[in-house]
């Protein structure tokens, strides 16, 4: 996959080598990586990105324009949606509510609900309420405004309708919602993104192992 990053150690226990394809020579000792032993063989590092279809009852985010890996900066506008229990995305923008759009293959997820066998009734309610919200006259194309009636309002209104603001106080306020739920997730992803771009530029990156 395009966004995969591999990590291995060749000759030094305190240096990780990060890359997309294994370099022919070790960037540290310049020995042939095929003919010499690696201290730690390559493994994939966890990517923060996920295809929304693999999520359940989550908030999902992606850049309004382009992708996280290629286009995202701290100034990028983010688009936000909600998935149902089968990973179908519900989102609101100037077209009104769209259900099941396939453009969410590299998004970030914000978990607002722990899904387990004990809350299957709540999950059912989540799906039903999401379908109701999608049909509400509040979320038509004509009512969309970029600043005060947009994708965030749709998501927060839905989560509040479910009563989640009682346990997640930050849902009462859009600024707090962004600061407490969205920014920590994008900040973590930001580290992966800068590493990815560094590797794209240099081929591989050597990092000190932090204990
Ligand atoms: Zn080496």
The count of helical stretches stands at: 4
What is the makeup of the main sheet? 5 strands, antiparallel
Strand order of the largest sheet: 7-6-5-4-8
Strand content: 15-25%
Structural class: alpha+beta
Q: Report how far apart the termini are.
A: 29 Å
Radius of gyration: 21 Å
Low-confidence stretches: none
Helices and strands, in order, run as EEEEHEEEEHHHE
Provide the list of bound ligands, each named once: zinc ion
In total, the number of domains comes to 2
Helix percent band? 25-40%
Rough outline: elongated
Question: Can you tell me about this structure?
Answer:
- The protein is α+β, with helices and mostly antiparallel strands and 211 residues long.
- It folds into two domains: 6-48 and 191-208, no CATH class; 52-190, no CATH class.
- Helix content is 28%, strand content 20%.
- It is built from four helices and nine strands; from the N terminus they run ββββαββββαααβ.
- The protein has helices at 68-71, 120-135, 151-161, 174-202; strands at residues 6-9, 15-19, 40-44, 59-63, 78-83, 89-93, 96-99, 108-110, 204-208.
- The chain has a five-stranded antiparallel β-sheet.
- β5 and β6 (89-93) form a beta hairpin.
- The longest helix is centred in the C-terminal third of the chain and has 29 residues, at 174-202.
- It is elongated, with a radius of gyration of 21 Å.
- The mean pLDDT is 94.
- Bound molecules: zinc ion.
- Zinc ion binds at residues 10-11, 26, 28-29, 31.
């Amino acid at each position: 996959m395009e966004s995969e990053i591999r990590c291995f150690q060749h000759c030094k226990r305190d240096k990780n080598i990060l890359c997309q394809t294994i370099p022919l020579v070790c960037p540290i000792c310049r020995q042939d990586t095929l003919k010499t032993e690696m201290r730690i063989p390559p493994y994939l590092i966890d990517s923060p990105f996920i295809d929304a279809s693999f999520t359940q009852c989550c908030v999902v985010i992606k850049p309004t324009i382009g992708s996280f890996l290629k286009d995202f900066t701290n100034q990028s506008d983010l688009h936000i949606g909600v998935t149902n229990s089968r990973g179908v995305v519900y989102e609101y923008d100037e077209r009104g509510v769209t259900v099941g759009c396939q453009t969410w293959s590299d998004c970030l997820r914000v978990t607002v609900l722990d899904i387990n066998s004990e809350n299957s009734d709540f999950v059912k309610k989540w799906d039903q309420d999401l379908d109701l919200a999608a049909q509400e006259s509040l979320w038509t194309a004509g009512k969309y405004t970029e600043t005060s009636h947009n994708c965030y309002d749709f998501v927060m209104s839905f989560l509040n309708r479910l009563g989640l603001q009682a346990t997640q106080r930050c849902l009462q306020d859009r600024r707090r919602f962004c600061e407490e739920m969205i920014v920590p997730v994008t900040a973590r992803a930001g580290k992966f993104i800068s590493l990815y771009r560094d590797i794209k530029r240099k081929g591989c990156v050597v990092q000190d192992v932090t204990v």
